[in-house]
Amino acid sequence: MKLRDLLFGCASVLACLSLNVTGAAAADECPRGDLDSRFCDVDGDLIADIPTDSSKWLDPDKLIFAYTPVEDPAVYKEAWSDFTDYLEEKTGKDVVFFPVQSNAAQIEAMRSGRLHISGFNTGSNPLAVNCAGFRPFTIMAREDGSFGYEMEIITYPGSGIEKVEDLKGKSLAFTSPTSNSGFKAPSAILKADFGMEKDRDFEATFSGKHDNSILGVANKDYIAASIANSVKFRMISRDVIKEDQVVTIFKSQTFPTTGYGVAHNLKPELQEQIKDAFFSFEWAGSSLEREFSKSKEAKFLPITYQEFWDVIRKIDSANDVSYACQ
């Protein structure tokens, strides 16, 4: 059975993902789809509506910005420095870069009102949308408008693994359960296309982050790992690893990369100022260009969650992932 068949009807088991957050007041009855009961989706675009009651709007003096927790947080604080300076100019507010350590902590921070602007990775985007009221509106793209990355399963030269089937009876490193390329997509693909499941056909370990998995394979601590190749390319460009230290045995279709957006209850005018900052930011010569040109990104591209995350929601459905918050 191929992945296209699995996406529309198989049932592999994955524990429901949830966040323990107390004191959340339920919203009035309204259309909401998969969104948490605190949110409404009257316009049917699958993301939380901005509250109609202005008393529920947030207009903080200090805006907290976070990038998805991959690689060295210190590297990305510097990489985003020119953009956060520009964001201060556009909003008239102080902007603080917050280095999150996990997807769960990042989602909880936005859900509790402590995170206002963020980039959520591909796999955690739907949970952030449905549990935390995240409103994504852009991703990074190449100059020609193309975008995305592929999931790769990598090993090291001489490991004895030359094809996916060679993983049987061995170990495969994932990143975290919320990661698309680091867990959800490879789980669906391995089951649908190769008839292989974790704990039955191979042992699963979790490294926490893509760079941990890539370094682990390069240093022969992990025999194989599923990773986002955009992270691999940046690590090679920074000489963190050498290209010949890892070998790719599988590459997936292209997936959308990190989605950037805001908390649903920021003041509407502030949300528009933040959007304008993303789309008017000048990449040329900036700290963003210096870092993200390593994976060929060159601008911010407008997107909708409903369209761009359609394939990810199908993968989640195939893995029985729940967006329910508890």
Automatic annotation (TrEMBL):
Coiled coil, from the record: none
Domain of life: Bacteria
Keyword NADP carried by entry: no
Xref: Pfam families: Phosphonate-bd
SUPFAM superfamilies attached to this UniProt entry: Periplasmic binding protein-like II
GO biological process, one term: transmembrane transport
Residues spanning the signal sequence: 1-26
Alphabetical UniProt keywords: Signal
Claim: Nucleotide-binding is one of the keywords in the record: no
PROSITE patterns: PROKAR_LIPOPROTEIN
One GO cellular component term: ATP-binding cassette (ABC) transporter complex
InterPro entries assigned: PhnD
Record family assignment: Belongs to the phosphate/phosphite/phosphonate binding protein family.
Official protein name in the record: Phosphate/phosphite/phosphonate ABC transporter substrate-binding protein
UniProt organism field: Denitrobaculum tricleocarpae
Primary gene name: phnD
